[in-house]
């Protein structure tokens, strides 16, 4: 087959796949993960069920692909926050605020827990932990953040503390949680009689 034909077919397949995942986003936002069915996806996307099954074997496969795309988008958003101009502390605050906002919007439940077991999630979590650790280390080097606790431990502290954002009802509450978390990183937050 000519190259142009192959590229056209690939572009069409990609567009249909993205439309399926966009529809899945709408359905998840409207009714939650458990409410999504293959029939709903096909109908709302405007394709036949047979076509949908050419792309995905079942609703779990659709949700996994949707989740992988969500995680990649979140990681991109967090990377943009880390790469903005400013001091390490300013960039760290932007990353933590973005992470807390993502945690606040997360979908809970058994199915969400299952989706979070994928390798794509562990890769994203490692990348995020490394990003936060690097920002904390840079902040400690400039004297803006504490240096009496290893940056890797402080990164885990931040990420675990901000998972509490999932239970918060407002953006203001999320901002307060981020501020409390950042306060724990300030140089004066160290305890003078800290034990090893």
The name of the CATH topology of the largest domain is Tetracycline Repressor, domain 2
Strand pairing plus helix content: what structural class? mainly alpha
**Which whole number gives the mean pLDDT?**
87
- Tell me what the CATH architecture of the largest domain is: Orthogonal Bundle
Distance between the terminal alpha carbons, to the nearest Å? 67 Å
Name the overall outline.
elongated
Spans where pLDDT lies below 50 across 5 or more residues:
192-196
CATH class of the largest domain, please?
Mainly Alpha
The percentage helix is over 70%
Order of helices and strands: HHHHHHHHH
CATH homologous superfamily descriptor of the largest domain: Tetracycline Repressor, domain 2
Most strands sheet? none
Strand content: under 5%
Strands, count: 0
**Number of helices in the DSSP assignment:** 9
The rounded Rg comes to 21 Å
């Amino acid at each position: 087959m000519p190259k142009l034909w192959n590229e056209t077919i690939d572009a069409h397949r990609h567009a249909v796949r993205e439309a399926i995942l966009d529809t899945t986003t709408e359905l998840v936002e409207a009714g939650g993960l458990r409410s999504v069915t293959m029939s709903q996806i096909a109908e709302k996307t405007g394709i036949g069920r047979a076509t949908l099954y050419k792309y995905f074997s079942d609703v779990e496969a659709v949700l996994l692909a949707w989740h992988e795309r969500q995680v990649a988008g979140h990681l991109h958003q967090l990377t943009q926050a880390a790469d903005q101009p400013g001091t390490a502390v300013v960039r760290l605050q932007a990353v933590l605020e973005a992470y807390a906002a993502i945690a606040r919007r997360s979908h809970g439940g058994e199915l969400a827990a299952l989706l979070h077991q994928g390798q794509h999630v562990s890769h994203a979590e490692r990348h995020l932990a490394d990003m936060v650790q690097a920002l904390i280390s840079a902040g400690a080097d400039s004297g803006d953040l504490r240096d009496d606790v290893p940056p890797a431990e402080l990164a885990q502290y931040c990420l675990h503390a901000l998972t509490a954002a999932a239970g918060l009802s407002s953006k203001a509450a999320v901002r307060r949680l981020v501020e409390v978390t950042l306060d724990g990183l300030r140089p004066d937050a160290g305890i003078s009689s800290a034990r090893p």
